[in-house]
Amino acid sequence: MEKLLLVEDDPTLIRMLTSFLTTENFQITSVTGQKAAAEAMEADRPDLALVDISLAEGNGFAVCANAKELGVPVIFLTASSDEFSVVTGLDMGADDYISKPFRPRELVSRIRSVLRRAGKRQSIITLGDLSVDTDKGTVTRDGKEVYLSALEYKLFLVFLNNRGQVLTRDKLLEEIWDSAGDYVGDNTLTVYIKRLREKIEQDSQNPVYIKTVRGLGYRLEG
Fold it and tell me: Angle at Cα 5 formed by Cα 84 and Cα 158, nearest 5°?
């Protein structure tokens, strides 16, 4: 379980992010200022720091400088959309930034991407006889590549990132909407789930991975 240090002075955002990121299997430590952030990084080296640029005590740029000295990747959380703040943060060595308000799922995607680049996260996900290489964007079953369309792969990643959780059809549509070049409606989603099962399951009529939760949606087992 990767350890994240959240440096943020908004209590509501701290509660929301801590709750959400915990469900995504991250261990969260939160502090509200520059001094506390430096102490937390020294005491328990995190895998990544999420840092708000504007803090009541100190500033995010100083936190970033300290993190980089310790080899800790940094993603800036900022309400500042001005070019100066973004460029300054990146010039100081920040690995990425995301402007508030942001979608939690987008933040998780950014976190995992930075962790992969920093070598903190495995790019290979194994699920039974399936293996997914998220760097190469490939899926294999029993060592043989399974050819998925872009939308099928995106749909599979949504399931993988929410393993064990029930996903409603509305939630799945929300997650894959931006990736689709064409309109994705309820009937289209049914077709894509059917195609995905046919490609990753040994028996698509009796799936062992993508299970239907009657009346609620779907859940990825394993």
Answer: 90
Average pLDDT over residues 96-117: 87
Rg (the chain; Cα; Å)? 19
Which tens digit of pLDDT belongs to each residue from 9-46?
999 999 999 998 988 878 999 999 999 999 999 888 89
124-220, which class in CATH?
mainly alpha
Look up the pTM and report it. Answer: 0.58
Residue pair 148/196 in contact (Cβ under 8 Å)? The answer is: yes
Place of tokens 């799936």: 207
Which tokens belong to 194?
């059917």
3-117: CATH topology: Rossmann fold (3.40.50)
The packing angle between helices 60-69 and 34-43, to 10°, is 20
